[in-house]
UniProtKB/TrEMBL annotation:
Molecular-function GO terms, alphabetical: ATP binding; metal ion binding
InterPro entries assigned: P-loop_NTPase, T6A_TsaE
Alphabetic keyword roster: ATP-binding, Cytoplasm, Magnesium, Metal-binding, Nucleotide-binding, tRNA processing
Family matches, as PANTHER family: TRNA THREONYLCARBAMOYLADENOSINE BIOSYNTHESIS PROTEIN TSAE
GO cellular component terms, semicolon-separated: cytoplasm
One BP term from GO: tRNA threonylcarbamoyladenosine modification
Transmembrane segments: none
Subcellular location: Cytoplasm
Main localization (coarse): cytoplasm
The protein's name in its UniProt record: tRNA threonylcarbamoyladenosine biosynthesis protein TsaE
Family per similarity comment: Belongs to the TsaE family.
Pfam family, one: TsaE
Gene3D superfamilies named among the record's database cross-references: P-loop containing nucleotide triphosphate hydrolases (3.40.50.300)
Length: 146
């Protein structure tokens, strides 16, 4: 695990830029952290880094939002799925090329590919600690260079 201390939105943007570049158009980011930790803010920054012009909003009431871009961005917020065991077809999303971001990934862990970049955001006073773990070769390499 690598911990990146983030002191501002600008630093969130910088981290998202770096990760967007390292993913090279395809990959899965699994995000955890309390409400208000900054998961959606990071996803917005990632979308911007990928050149997606649409405003990325919290998909809490939609569960999945798809943003058209090169690469595509798939944004899942599993918050409302806590305790629900149901096949919602997310596997198909993870088979797609593009960037996949999942907030509250614990709630759909059963259907998630094991290879992924996990980002746990914790508050530390005014700062945010982005705890990044890469699982699988591609993601381990990303973790190493952060
Ligand atoms: P989550 O999706 O984890 O529930 P949000 O991304 O919606 O959290 O963020 C909640 C609030 O925290 C927003 O008002 C946002 O502006 C603020 N915030 C997020 N990241 C940062 C940051 N790096 N620096 C300062 N404020 C932030
Ligand atoms: Mg959110």
């Amino acid at each position: 695990m690598k911990t990146v201390r983030v002191k501002s939105i600008e630093e969130t943007n910088a981290l998202a830029n770096k990760i967007a570049t390292l993913l090279e158009g395809d990959g899965l980011i699994c995000m955890a952290g309390d409400l208000g930790a900054g998961k959606t803010t990071f996803t917005k920054a990632l979308g911007k880094a990928l050149g997606i012009d649409d405003v990325i909003t919290s998909p809490t009431f939609n569960i999945l939002k798809i943003y058209d871009g090169e690469p595509m961005l798939y944004h899942i917020d599993a918050y409302r799925l806590e305790g629900i065991q149901q096949d919602l077809g997310f596997e198909e999303v993870f088979d797609e090329n593009g960037i996949k971001v999942v907030e509250w990934y614990d709630y759909i862990n059963d259907v998630l590919p094991s290879e992924r970049l996990e980002i746990h955001i914790a508050l530390d006073g005014e700062d945010r600690l982005f705890q990044v773990s890469g699982i699988g070769k591609k993601y381990q390499e990303i973790e190493e260079v952060l």
